[in-house]
Model the fold of this input.
Amino acid sequence: MAELGPLCVGIDPSPALLGRFELPDSPDGLRAFCEICIEALSGVVAVVKPQVAFFERHGAAGMSAFEAAVALGQDAGMLVVADAKRGDVGSTTEAYADAWFRGPLAADAVTATPYLGAGALVPMVRAARATGRGLFVVVTSSNPEGREVQEAVRRDGSSVEASLVRTISRWNAEEAHEAGSAGPGRLGAVGAVVGATGGASPEGLARLAGVVLAPGLGAQGATVADVARRFATCARGAVLPVAARAVLAEGPAGMRAAAERLGDELAAALCS
Amino acid sequence: MAELGPLCVGIDPSPALLGRFELPDSPDGLRAFCEICIEALSGVVAVVKPQVAFFERHGAAGMSAFEAAVALGQDAGMLVVADAKRGDVGSTTEAYADAWFRGPLAADAVTATPYLGAGALVPMVRAARATGRGLFVVVTSSNPEGREVQEAVRRDGSSVEASLVRTISRWNAEEAHEAGSAGPGRLGAVGAVVGATGGASPEGLARLAGVVLAPGLGAQGATVADVARRFATCARGAVLPVAARAVLAEGPAGMRAAAERLGDELAAALCS
Done:
């Protein structure tokens, strides 16, 4: 990843993009879409993020295409983040931990959503550590409607998002302590999803000791300069900006060049 | 449903319950588990709620067992609520709407999670209305860790959960207005998930004009009396208390009787 830079490309086989690729809106279309994307991006980007919702549209057959996409990405040497936004309580969170860290759907990392409280995600945190994979907890989304929940103020006076950042930092500190390997540069199993759009990043993000996944680059409105400004305090190499449509809409012939261009801009802006 | 009473049984094929049923922890085990449950509950309960996480543990093959479970429940005359807790933003929410209202996974209703803001779920609300299915938005969960998010206070001074109840009420009022059929007794396409555990129900729940799905009966600690107290202001027939382990742990031989007993207790407590 150090060689290829931080850009993560979202693999979003929406009906519109399947059409743009002249592929059918079917499980076979999903498979072909992922093959084209991974071949085009191989050697250019280190991380891809297939969006599970677009595979679920085709039910079990779509999820079979998702399993194939994970294998294909990993075979091409990429890290694969399953954007599933899962989360529940108790034994159900245990089941999601099995599903996304140990079962046939397991990629290198998965995203989770914390409406049921950060504590409810602990089985997924433990499974991430135990399997050497990553868990990205949604902290701040790239859409304006998310603000009403994420900036709401808890009883202890902190916002929901700031408190999540603190909890993730604590989890990663615990992990480092248990492993006896704390120290600068060490990143824990839990990262945060923080949209690339918007102003200042949530309080305390620089102390996360985890990776920040930052969707919203391009079609959702964030520029490379926005990313550089919003995550200025984060550790070098710890921010993965995500672009999907901005790259994919270039089609099979243009997407590799689009990813290279965006990757170069990001490398220049984030690593200088 | 009027005949069978309000009890909803959660179909949770966890590793522990598969073992209790002497079934393998495999896609075939999931299928057999669902067949046993639906046969045993047929004619006793009107609504079942398969928990998607337990099917995802087995990847695409598990999701195929989920599709079969939905068909089996519907063939037995039951309403099937897919407990998926999905939710995202923009075109991804559109994809979840396709997946859970129009695709092979579509049941009679699906649960959604609102960490990205209620507004982000609008494509699912529209799809529920258009397809005559239901959407249950998680408002208040049955676990204590959820309080820190759900009772947090928004800029407008209301709690996250109270504001969600207002938004759902508004959606259902809009729907009734568009259909020209407002009035008492009419329930809209959007319901709320409110855990059966805890004290008073969230503010304004009686004005929801939608169904309340109330997990937590039995193993998670809520009693029939708790349910009656917590939802005392809700319309008759508008609350579906959910029990899973309390019924399923009785095993293939005992679960029908356990569901009948619990159903009778609920009918007496809620409908008197």
In short: Strands of chain B lie at 8-11, 47-50, 79-86, 109-112, 134-140, 190-194, 212-217, 239-243. Chain B has a mean pLDDT of 94. Chain B has one domain: 8-270.
